[in-house]
Amino acid sequence: MATFRSADPVRTYxxxxxxxxxxxxxxxxxxxxYYVRDVGxxxxxxxxxxxxxxxxxxxxxxxxxxxxxxxxxxxxxxxGFVLIGAGFLLQGLVPTFLAILAAQVxxxxxxTFPSGADQAWITDEVGTxxxxxxxxxxxxxxxxxxxxxxxxxxxxxxxxxxxPMVLSGAGMILLALMLALFMRELNFHRVPREERETYRxxxxxxxxxxxxxxxxxxxxxxxxxxxxxxxxxxAFDRLWSVKVLTFTFPTVFGTSDxxxxxxxxxxxxxxxxxxxxxxLNRLSPARLSAAHPTGILATLAFLQMVGVLAFALAxxxxxxxxxxxxxxxxxxxxxxxxxxxxxxxxxxxxRATVISMVSQANAIGQVVGGPPLGALxxxxxxxxxxxxxxxxxxxxxxxxxxxxxxxxxxxxNLHH
Length: 416
Prior knowledge:
Elements: H1 9-28, H2 31-39, H3 43-70, H4 73-93, H5 97-112, H6 117-126, H7 128-159, H8 163-182, H9 198-215, H10 217-244, H11 258-283, H12 285-288, H13 294-313, H14 317-343, H15 351-379, H16 381-392, H17 394-401, H18 404-407
Helix pairs in contact: 1-7, 1-8, 3-4, 3-5, 3-9, 3-15, 4-5, 4-6, 4-8, 6-7, 6-15, 7-11, 7-14, 9-10, 9-15, 10-14, 10-15, 10-16, 10-17, 11-14, 13-14, 13-16, 13-17, 15-16
């Protein structure tokens, strides 16, 4: 099988991100409609579906990151896609509440296997300098895949609502097989079998990841930012659709159906993000892959806060949508810049583990912050959305507090 694994890693990373985004959009675009119309879930059950997914991600984020550091990045990614594919198939083929919950567990555990492992893999294979522009470019492939997946889901959903989910699940498993055959992994060396003392090795890797997060200013700050972002974002992610549904939609192509409009809104937001990313990549590639991108990250964080607050206060559909798209664009641009920055400040030994810790901090924030803001939203939707924006407020200042001189501390000191 090793003879097949000769594909260029950067191209593989682009295809991987594009295919993943396409298949994810194929499954997610109409999933909420499917849950309500075909499965008949009530609002409480809808919340439990989201909570189950978040808890599964939270509980398995660090353990699966450690597996990727000890055994194989490629294996971790392949296992993850098989689990996600199985989850998509289960919820599309068995329209019951318990099956949907079981699918969330499969998907939640599955998401944690590639989380961190994919970024660690490409960084190991091509180095941190080539990885930085690859993160930005991969984001564009991901946005393109999302657009194609959203349109395809809408078309297939007209035939049968669960059909996009079923095809997405099968596609995920096929993608896992293709990556197992063609994804090369030359610069990762796992611990020899005779030297594996699994629990001790896992404990040491986890301890090293904690040490990196504690001593490196960039890593420590990004963990805190990820926690605050989770506290803020869960409420917005759950409640923005509720706010939009309070407006009257105009009639276009003979319909004002919210399902049509929600698909259109998703497409517009993705297209705007893609165009913005392409424009900035062309006009200012050095800034997007800068060694210390604190200024641009602080600016993007401020724009996200403005977007949420403006959305909360908007009394007009188009103003609300403009604010929502501002937040979407800023969030989309932040991810690859922040990913490249974080990867430059951790070594291969604990890269996937540290990245997973950052993701886990976000999950903790979502689990902790979502319910109280959701409870507030029952009495005041606007109040919950405003609180979400205000919780975000410290993030721009946290970015600006980091100085290049502090960020340059050599990680070699951590090994003593």
